[in-house]
Amino acid sequence: MTYEELMNKAIEVSKNSYSPYSKFSVGACALTESGKIYCGCNFENSSFGMTICAERNAIGSAIADGERKIKAVAIYSPNQDNCLPCGACRQVMHEFSSNDKEFDVIVKNGKELKIYKLIQLLPEGFNL
Q1: pLDDT lower than 50: segments of the chain
Q2: Catalytic residue flag (residue 55)
Q3: What are 24-44's pLDDT values in tens digits?
Q4: Count of CB atoms within 10 A of residue 124's CB?
Q5: pLDDT recorded at residue 78
Q6: Quick one: 70 exposed, middle or buried, by C-beta within 10 A (0-12, 13-18, 19+)?
Q7: 42 contacts 52 by C-beta, under 8 angstroms
Q8: Considering 55, 67, 102, 124, which one is annotated as catalytic?
């Protein structure tokens, strides 16, 4: 699957976002080491701490299916170009990355895709 196709899936799933409070829709699509893809969107709760980001939703779906190694995540928001993951999502990506130096975070910047390495976004991820 190309990163353009991965982004297209993230764009499509962003339409399912449940974000009545922030009005900030996000879709994400995770590519696993085995080649499977898992999509997720953000969903909010009136108890804001219970809100789940699209990236963690997608990765959680992969985990529920038995996957443990993620290679890349495409993130899209119709509300913002270059929509980067929050700190919690970066740490979750680090936890389930096959290699954070090779893990790609793909975002849309205008009509172009911008690719970050996870190590750029979280240079010292927490490990046990």
Answers
A1: none
A2: yes
A3: 999 999 999 999 999 999 999
A4: 7
A5: 98
A6: buried
A7: yes
A8: 55
